[in-house]
């Protein structure tokens, strides 16, 4: 140690020059600091949930990962001018090189009726030219579930444009490129809003940078005022601050060298360093001024180093251990915070010892403040000395009061611990008035939200009727949850197509692969459909808009969805309806679907199933009434073919009615020859058409009868969305669960809110791991210092109370556990142990020199440094409460409070605990606390005495 002291004094100038040079080099790197707060990168890419989420970006162009949203507000969207503005914006954005796909109202698929049947076109192909046409389009789109309420707001005034970027592009540059082409084309749009994950992360990065730049000087100024109050000297005020600021500069420069971006959390490290690392300078200056009253020349520096180098080193090592324990966390922001903060503490140690000693050797202060003398401490009226005397008297003569107060605090804080909750939603993290939260609320109110969760399906062929029907069931079940609202999939479009082909009332999924294949032809080439299936057509997604709620609700809803998906059949085989057990299973399926759509279970489930079963078993022909109404419906169903033959629907309906009345005494084609003088071929053609139409009437009546029976059971009329269920009563084949079946499907949930849920599920685990590591590492370091297990355990009690207090305060004041606050316990362990180390180290040294006054000397000298350190650290950390981000405000306030209480626990409880080990010494000091203070021996005399001994 002596050689090191002499080395620092001898090479003061080189040390000083190297310090300044390193600071300048790292300071130049400031301009290259990057901020990145993509929460999908909070956990390692190897994480199964994250890697799966990232993999979907290449499979589906509609996947909302590397994407953004533009919201356009108009007085009325459905005017030629507004729709033209929208079209121009979409066309311009599609030409941006970074853009992969654009989804908007104009390129959504729309089924257009024609004289021959229908066509599928994009909305842009039928954009209106007059206000009347625009209002007709609006009326038409209001019935389209894929568009209305999703792409267009319910009031018809606003719409969104969803943009996805190529995976290799710089998202921030892509956002700027899109804004550059959109802003000049706003036209008559009243409001244009940009949003999406890249927009959020960029805003968070800007906030982080502003927090660092704006709050670090404020923290430094506050600490300057506190240090001036404690030291009353220029060097005592400035030097500890410069140690902390230099340490911060080194950290930021080092992050650039490592090419690791900063996050919202690590951006507060300069503030933390100003608060924490300045403590090393405070302790150095505190002891330096003690020796200035006794020694001269370089002996002051050497003696100061002799007394503070070891405790500052041990303090730095233990604090570094607390921070480095955070690197065991699997959350990137937490691990990065631990790395940078740990390095900052190490840099602070070097600066507060080597560099600060070198500086004071070169620029030695002319004098030291007089209030650092021991006589002044006993008699001074200064506030800090009064506090020190009060602490000393409390631990020597008011022990019971200290113990009782501690017990009361433990009981009160214990009430808060069970109330700790996890909350990582954007609103909770950013705060209700943050611009990001305001944007979220806007999208929630206008479009139902801006985040998406997905149900991923993988199978042999996504066009299989069973798969498409499962998509519909998933969509309907998910509607009850905040995190899975307003779902859409390719199944919705297929149902719309089926209704266009078969007529109103048939908005459902056919049971035949052939029928699905015919419908699929109309979907070819549409960007909406192609964006939701992969190129091999063996995977698809159900897209669900996620409305932000709370972390607890999100977790519960995700678990409900997982349970539902697990309960669905995963392997099925196709059997004809007349195979034994098929009709029973179909009836069970219809009842299950009713419960999914109604979101309730039937009290008389078996009775409902029997009712459905009785209808399933009846042939379609039993529901055909050979009357005038049936004749009219039949003729209307074949109207296109009838009109092609030059007939009217009413004429054919009259023929059918007569045929029914005559009890079909002749064949239908003969009746047509009789009434219309057709040739035999034409008559057979029309007869086949009409026979098919009669069958369709029977099917419709069977569906309607099932609907009426169910409505009687439910007690309410059922809307058109239930057509999906009733349509199944017409199935000619059934998909029955069978492990050896040839149709398999697997399900998986993903989405940005679900990644958040993954983070939530790990928070407590991460908290426990980092805290256990911190406790273990730091306890070993304390044990090595004290070389006494019993003393080490007692020394750890104030620290344990500090951690206990952090949890209690979180519960009592409803501070949620998130990626920031989970670090508090580990930081409290690492930073709080500093006070214990400085106190015990000084206590041990005083025992060797002046045992009768060891406690007084320790409390009044080292205690002053501890109090100044605590006030500086806490007040500097409280500055974070001025930041724009709610999560960091809570973290700063909690961290500051805990560090402030840590010194209280140490100064009041540690002497009592140590008294158990050194009872005789404390009794001696209690009897001697009014005696004059003996003159402290110089380090030289002490060493000689130690040799004689």
Layout: helices, strands, pairs:
Elements: H1 2-10, H2 12-28, H3 48-59, E1 67-73, H4 80-94, E2 99-103, E3 109-113, E4 118-122, H5 131-141, E5 158-165, H6 171-182, E6 191-195, H7 197-231, H8 234-257, H9 269-276, H10 278-292, H11 298-324, H12 332-362, H13 374-379, H14 383-397, H15 399-416, H16 426-430, H17 435-447, E7 451-459, H18 465-478, E8 485-488, H19 490-502, H20 513-520, H21 527-530, E9 539-546, H22 551-567, E10 571-576, H23 582-598, H24 605-617, H25 628-637, H26 639-644, H27 649-661, H28 668-676, H29 680-714, H30 723-727, E11 733-737, E12 743-751, H31 752-786, H32 789-812, H33 824-849, H34 854-878, H35 886-917, H36 919-928, H37 939-948
Antiparallel strand pairs: 1-5, 1-6, 2-5, 3-4, 7-9, 7-12, 8-9, 10-11, 10-12
Helix pairs in contact: 1-11, 2-8, 2-12, 7-8, 7-9, 7-34, 8-9, 8-10, 8-12, 9-12, 9-34, 10-11, 10-12, 10-34, 11-12, 11-31, 11-33, 14-34, 14-35, 15-32, 18-19, 22-31, 23-24, 24-29, 25-27, 25-29, 27-28, 28-29, 31-32, 31-33, 32-33, 32-35, 33-34, 33-35, 34-35, 35-36
